[in-house]
Amino acid sequence: MIIRYAHDGTTAVGIRDGDVVRRIADDLASLTRLPLDRLRELVDQADGPGVAIGEVSVLPPVDGRTEVWAAGVTYQISQTARMAESETSATVYEQVYDADRPELFFKSVAWRVVGDGGELRVRADSEIDVPEPELALLINSSGEVIGYGVCNDVSSRSIEGENPLYLPQAKVYTGACGLSGVTPVWQVADPYDLELAMVITRGGEQVWQGTTRTDQLHRRLDDLVAWLHRELEFPDGVWLSTGTSLVPELPFTLADGDHVRITIPGVGELGNTVRRG
Description:
It contains seven helices and 20 strands. It is of the alpha+beta class. The protein folds into two domains: 2-59, no CATH class; 67-276, Fumarylacetoacetase-like, C-terminal domain (Fumarylacetoacetate hydrolase, domain 2, Alpha-Beta Complex), CATH 3.90.850.10. Strands 6, 7, 8, 11, 12, 14, 15 and 18 form an eight-stranded mixed β-sheet that branches. Strands 4-3-2-1-5 form a five-stranded antiparallel β-sheet. β1 and β2 (10-17) form a beta hairpin. α3 (76-85) packs antiparallel against α4. It is globular and about 55 Å long.
């Protein structure tokens, strides 16, 4: 796994191999400017002594000018949930589900992203807030998928449900995006054959859990990537979160102090505590 980390007052990017991290670059953005074959060479050649994982602080896997974008209504259950929460505009979600053009939206700049173990936030002016566990793609500046990760696309269902024009406020704010480390693309045999699981605990007790599989995706990953790169350039690469099919049923909402853990075996894990406001 490729991780960003801090050690001895500096930040770097390295390969985590068990309990050891071996440095390969100063920053993640520089890796996204490499072609896929050159990145693989760099990863395969990482054989220095490294440092113990316990001696570093793991950072969110995004820096520089790298952006995070997300796709919506890519699973049947997502379409159904979005229609249920929207009293006045349910048909827009039904229409986009079968449309040629997918729903794509900007999610976060680098400095707002939270990594594994960090603190996610829900808005103080929202009543219903949920985590959205998703498979995320790390794409280089040439448009090649170079890795996979776990994303938590935290959302306000009450704000978005009030009016779809409020989507940016429901989705884009400080602490609303969680990302795990990067599993190189060549280490994942089939991105359409992955299990996603999410567990939410409150006061030490489980209050919600669910599982799904990426073979339920209604959209092709390469199609989402192609649409994202229409009329857009990403000189430092981009993360694209590919949508969710694990949506806690209404009226469930995250509460202050909840813990959310998302796992995609073969890709990674993302665990975060939730704070309101």
